[in-house]
Write a structure and sequence with these properties.
Strand 13, helix 8 and strand 14 form a beta-alpha-beta unit. This protein is α/β, with parallel strands linked by helices and about 350 residues long. The chain has a single domain, classed as Ribonuclease Z/Hydroxyacylglutathione hydrolase-like (Metallo-beta-lactamase, Chain A, 4-Layer Sandwich), CATH 3.60.15.10. It is about 20% helix and about 20% strand. The structure holds zinc ion.
């Protein structure tokens, strides 16, 4: 695999990024709030899970008092910054404008350490989600160590479930679930990978091995680290079983990387459109495996342009044809009954309903 490009390649790539982001005219983008099961799932004590798409593969999940953020990101620096030609930092005005109230958030879970998933997390954890524990790889922890305010608030995810290694070997079928304190939420980190960004080229690779004392000033300092997928369960109020279960990925992967344990199906799969063509059978193969009732297509919009929730301004992420992705999702939907999918505009919300 090729790695960091030369400065000439960088300039060419930046031109390509600008040229290749596609308009969304005709794309079935959903805005506002939808609750497909609200009419049909009715019981006196029914519960809801709100899945609020924030953009760039980030989400806000709420079930009652339990509040979890997944890789929130609003800063959207331009392509020259993304290619490390200009300094990078969180755009606090954009965060303040677009991040909903998350003062009571319990956790921020991060799949990998690239700037489009981690750059805003430190500022959000310090200023907007002061009670949240941050969960991520060792590299995530080494990066956030630069922020004294987050001391003792970052949990390193040391072990993960690995679908590949466990196949046919019962000894390796350990499932290192993590419980989020004072919630009815647990999650299983799953060994995954990060698709190349385009044309087989992967940018910002590598891991960190010691704490930083300053956050990286350029995008290429926000190296990937280990990339994880997650199975997230919002538990029944009193019983040890999931009331809502989600599979979440912030990067496309080759099968079986990112796959949860066998025989586990989920209510919703939050999948990643960006760079899906750089890996095999994504997301079709994963969807067949986890059999979600709802498929949410995340990380589909151009995060090199200023953050927006305006359907007229939104553009598709460069190098990733959403139609090709949608074809695969529709292929899965055609084989399963009652399944729905949504391509959410940032800010839109999907509400799931369950009877305990
Ligand atoms: Zn990434």
């Amino acid at each position: 695999m090729k790695t960091i490009p030369s400065s000439q390649t960088v300039l060419l790539a930046s031109l390509l990024v600008v040229l290749s982001s596609c308009g969304i005219r005709g794309l079935p983008v959903s805005a506002g709030s939808s609750c497909p099961d609200c009419e049909t799932t009715d019981c006196p004590d029914r519960e809801t899970l709100s899945i609020n798409y924030l953009g760039s593969g980030g989400y806000l999940l709420r079930r009652g008092e339990d509040v979890v953020l997944l890789g929130p990101f609003f800063s959207n620096p331009g392509v020259l910054t993304a290619l490390s030609l200009l300094p990078i930092g969180p755009n606090t005005d954009a965060i303040e404008q677009w991040l909903p109230d998350v003062m009571t958030a319990d956790a921020i879970i991060v799949g990998h350490a690239h700037y489009d998933h981690l750059l805003d997390v430190g500022w959000i954890a310090e200023h907007r989600a002061p009670q949240a524990m941050v969960y991520g790889s060792r590299t995530v922890a080494h990066l956030l160590a630069a922020l004294p305010a987050l001391e003792n608030r970052v949990t390193i995810i040391n072990s993960s479930y690995s679908a590949g290694e466990s196949a046919g070997n019962s000894k390796d079928k350990r499932e290192p679930w993590i419980w989020i304190p004072e919630t009815r939420v647990r999650f299983l980190p799953i060994k995954s990978e990060h698709a190349p960004h385009f044309a087989g080229i992967k940018l910002m690779t590598g891991q960190l091995h010691k704490n930083l004392d300053r956050l990286p000033a350029r995008a290429n300092g926000w190296v990937e680290g280990r990339t994880l997928a997650f199975l997230i369960e919002f538990l029944h109020p009193t019983e040890d079983r999931a009331l809502f279960s989600l599979h979440y990925q912030d990067a496309a992967s080759n099968p079986p990387l990112g796959y949860p344990p066998p025989d586990l199906t989920v209510d919703a799969a939050l999948v990643c459109v960006a760079s899906h063509r750089e890996v095999s059978d994504y997301p079709g193969n994963l969807l067949q495996r986890v059999q979600p009732r709802h498929v949410v297509l995340g990380h589909w919009e151009n995060f090199f342009a200023p953050y927006t929730q305006d359907l007229d301004e939104l553009r598709g992420v460069p190098f990733s044809d959403p139609w090709d992705f949608i074809d695969q999702v529709e292929g899965y939907v055609a084989t399963s009954q009652g399944t729905r999918w949504t391509l959410p505009a940032p800010g839109s919300e999907l509400v799931l309903v369950a009877c305990p």
